[in-house]
């Protein structure tokens, strides 16, 4: 089995899942902003609570993307280990470097951003 036959469907599914999660997050944020605008017109005293709720996003929401890339890396590495052709194995392990770096970068960014938002140096 060629490398492209494995990577293209997996990458397509992960891309689709990430796009859907971003679209749902965009819709939810849009609805929340609309609620804040309506509250500013009708009941301005409730706005601070709504703004705090907007800022208090789920802590795992951003990190999940990083974990998805790490899981994709593990899947590629497991496929590579079970491949009998050494050149395919080497090519798959080299390809696993990209999602690993992206996953680690996303996790590091969310870690440092959460520390910065919490006010710790």
Written description of the protein model:
With 121 residues, this protein is an all-alpha fold. It is 86% helix and 0% strand. Helix 1 runs antiparallel to helix 2, helix 3 (60-82) packs antiparallel against helix 4 and helix 3 runs antiparallel to helix 5 (97-118). The mean pLDDT is 80.
* Uncertain residue ranges: none
Tally of DSSP helical segments: 5
Our Rg estimate from Cα atoms comes to 20 Å
Shape: elongated
Class from helix and strand fractions: mainly alpha
The overall strand count is 0
Average pLDDT rating: 80
Order of helices and strands: HHHHH
> End-to-end span in angstroms?
49 Å
Q: Helicity range of the residues?
A: over 70%
Q: What amount of the residues lies in strands?
A: under 5%
Sheet with the most strands, sense and barrel status: none
Characteristics:
121 residues; mainly alpha; 0% strand; elongated
Protein topology:
Blueprint: H1 3-42, H2 47-55, H3 60-82, H4 86-95, H5 97-118
Helix pairs in contact: 1-2, 1-3, 3-4, 3-5
Structure, briefly:
This protein is mainly α and 121 residues long. The protein contains five helices and no strands. The radius of gyration is 20 Å and the shape is elongated.
């Amino acid at each position: 089995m060629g490398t492209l036959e494995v990577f293209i469907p997996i990458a397509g599914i992960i891309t689709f899942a990430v796009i859907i999660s971003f679209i749902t997050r965009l819709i939810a944020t849009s609805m929340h902003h609309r609620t804040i605008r309506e509250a500013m017109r009708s009941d301005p005293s409730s706005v601070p609570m709504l703004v705090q709720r907007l800022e208090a996003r789920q802590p795992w929401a951003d990190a999940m993307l990083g974990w998805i890339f790490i899981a994709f890396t593990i899947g590629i590495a497991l496929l590579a280990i079970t491949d009998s052709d050494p050149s395919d194995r080497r090519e798959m392990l080299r390809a696993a470097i990209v999602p690993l770096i992206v996953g680690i970068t996303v996790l590091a960014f969310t870690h440092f951003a959460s520390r910065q938002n919490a006010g710790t140096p």
